[in-house]
Design brief:
alpha/beta; about 25% helix; TIM Barrel
């Protein structure tokens, strides 16, 4: 498989935000979201075998009792690589809790049981709305999370209507609404978190407003965190 980076950091998003985590970032993505903050993972990377990846993850995780049990496979879009389900299976077999961050455009059913899927639904301002595979709704379970990255009121209305229409709160562990973080280079303005919070409160939505914790701890442009 082709790997952009493997690193140790804190989980920045979702219900496990703040927990130490090992990240395996795979190379390649078939989407081009306007606000993408990991475009460096579109190309390049290094070919690595499954054993090599596991060795790196184990070294970063450390040994009991001070061992990091959480691993996230991310990208790019990790499900573009056919070896990804085998990587997830190997990590589960090694005793890790495995998260998978995916765009929702690929079939999540190829992943082995036990993988926690964090599935995006792309909103209109991403430029990739309409790419979500509706079959993934039936593949979700009560351990999964589903996320909307929101850049505007238009995005919020789309996310609210989608979440309510499909009763997402009953399908997954958590529905996440995350505001787009302002781009350090000024390519997009972002959405103030306070504005998103007000909209959610006004509509009494059963969702969690999630911020990208790592961008408050470290420089928002820093890689490997």
């Amino acid at each position: 498989m082709v790997i952009t980076e493997i690193f140790r950091s804190l989980q920045g998003e979702g219900t496990r935000a703040g927990l130490p985590c090992i990240f395996v970032r795979l190379t390649g993505c078939n989407l081009r979201c306007v606000w993408c903050d990991t475009a460096y993972a579109f190309y390049g990377g290094k070919k690595q075998g499954l054993g090599e990846v596991l060795d790196t993850v184990n070294a970063l995780a450390g040994q009991p009792p001070a061992r990091i049990p959480l691993v996230e496979i991310t990208g790019g879009e990790p499900l573009l690589q056919p070896e990804t389900p085998a990587l997830a299976r190997a990590l589960l077999d090694a005793g890790f809790q495995v998260l998978m961050e995916t765009s929702g455009e690929r079939n999540i059913g190829v992943l082995p049981p036990g993988v926690i899927r964090i599935v995006d639904v792309k909103c209109p301002d991403s430029g990739e709305s309409g790419r979500f595979d509706a079959a993934n709704l039936d593949a979700l379970n009560g351990e999964d999370e589903i996320k909307f990255v929101i850049a505007s009121r238009r995005d919020y209305d789309f996310a609210r209507d989608f979440a309510l229409r499909w009763n997402l709160a009953s399908r997954v562990r958590q529905v996440l609404f995350s505001p787009v973080f302002p781009d350090p280079a000024g390519r997009w303005p972002g959405l103030p978190a306070a504005q998103l919070a007000e909209w959610v409160l006004q509509d009494r939505l059963p969702v969690r407003v999630g911020l990208q914790l790592h961008k408050f701890i470290w420089d928002p442009a820093m890689k490997g965190v």
